[in-house]
């Protein structure tokens, strides 16, 4: 738990955004993006599991509840879903031998939406982290 606390001590909103964008952009890669997204989801689940094991107060709360109750969690899920679905749609069009040239504008718009969601989510998440009291009693 001390390692987690030391990691979040030096993070800021731009750092959170950078981390999330580096996770999200590869999700646009045809085919690979779906596997990368599944790996990112698995890693997030493992991190939530470790936090639940370390904090008895979170023991009875399902991990997905924590994710879905936070606005930044929902923003991240929406952003990752956009990227992974585009990855699938590109693969589908490639298999059907349909040109993806007409999709370039839409892909650019989706990347812009993804950046907007993750930027806002990074600042909201940073605000939430800063609002956590540092002198919480240990249980």
Automatic annotation (TrEMBL):
- The entry's protein name is Putative integral membrane protein DUF95
Q: Highest taxon of the source?
A: Archaea
Q: Where are the transmembrane segments?
A: 21-41, 61-83, 104-129
Record key words, sorted: Membrane, Transmembrane, Transmembrane helix
């Amino acid at each position: 738990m001390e390692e987690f606390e030391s990691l979040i001590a030096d993070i800021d909103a731009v750092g959170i955004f950078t981390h999330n964008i580096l996770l999200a952009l590869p999700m646009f890669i045809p085919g690979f993006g779906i596997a990368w997204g599944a790996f990112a989801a698995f890693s997030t689940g493992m991190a939530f599991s470790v936090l639940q094991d370390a904090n008895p107060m979170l023991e009875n709360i399902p991990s997905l509840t924590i994710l879905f109750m936070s606005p930044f969690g929902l923003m991240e899920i929406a952003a990752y879903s956009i990227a992974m679905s585009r990855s699938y749609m590109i693969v589908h069009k490639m298999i059907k031998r349909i040109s993806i040239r007409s999709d370039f504008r839409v892909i650019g718009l989706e990347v812009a939406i993804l950046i907007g969601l993750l930027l806002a989510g990074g600042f909201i998440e940073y605000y939430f982290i800063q609002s956590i009291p540092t002198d919480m009693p240990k249980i």
